[in-house]
Amino acid sequence: MTKPMNETLLPDLKKELKDNILAFWMERALDEEHGGFLGEIKSDLTVVPDAGKSLVLNARILWTFSSAYRLYPEPSYLKIAERALAYLRKHFYDQEHEGFFWGVDAKGNPAETKKQVYGQAFVIYALSEYYRITQDQSALDEAVRLFELLEKHAYDPANKGYVEALLGDWTPTEDHSLSGKDLNVPKSMNTHLHVLEGYTNLYRIWPSEQLHRTLKELIEVTIDHIVDPKTAHFLLFFDMEWGIKSHHISYGHDIEGSWLLFEAAEVLGDEELLSRVKDVAIKMAEATLNEGIDKDGGIWNEAEADGTLLERTKDWWPQAEAMVGFYNAYQLTGDTRYQEAAANSWAFIDQYIADRTHGEWYWGVDADNKPITEQSKVSAWKCPYHNGRACIEMIERLEKVHAKH
Q: Does the model's pTM come out above 0.90?
């Protein structure tokens, strides 16, 4: 790279965030008939009118537009965040048992009433971000209450960590699975990573002693049980006592986790723990760089324990996380291999993942880097969070570099 990244990437990332990602959601995703946001839009922009609406999609829209407003205080972004919050409160909130439903139907009636901990964590993440831009006390109160509910019902005092899911009334369930792809086991890396993310953002605005202890323990649990000390990959699925139930590798989660773990320790402010986490984060980034990157700069999805790829496709979200994770590793080490990997991630996104015809990003690409168009552009899991956040994170980091020069 002849020019510094802050000069070459900043304009591209700002344009991507504002004109391709946020604009798409504001123009295409509003449900004008039933309120809130459409549950599904196909890759050719065909709306699926009777699609249900997921907690994950709605919480992630709230987080993304709150975060975008924090960076660029444009009234249109705040309006979308307020729309998302109003819909969550009206349709997803469980008036009887508290917490938030996992899914509602197209008209906003409860459809999946179980309390998936992953979903509750995203609401905490989103409410915290909304409070950061509005200082709305009710949003903070709701986030704290949700934190208290998770600590009361989902926390495992015997073995530490959190169960995957509970019934609507917060009693135990045998139905733990997050999605059709996930094992039906009581604990997972994915849920713990996003509880960590939500609690980190809550600690920014509510640095209570209880949350300090809780977040510190969760960081330690992640290092002690979820990161494999031999390989520096995340282990993915567990029983209640942290017995390992899968040895698959998820490269996207590894690189995402490397920077989210460091961010959590940094926000917590425990220097001893931060030093330990920094070492782990660098090892995780190094493992992904060595094993998970294709020659075109794209990052693979998943592999067997021995590194054999499970599929030769590349989904959108690992590419987004790779850009941030590798740049974070560069900031921690000064090793230009990571800076180059981050730049290559953006180049791959720009060339193959971003949809320059219909807006937003494709779900991913196949082995020949052709867009995967059978997967929807908007769905329960296809949200503006990974790609929106990657742009926001990179813009903030590169602008700090720019300010120093």
A: yes
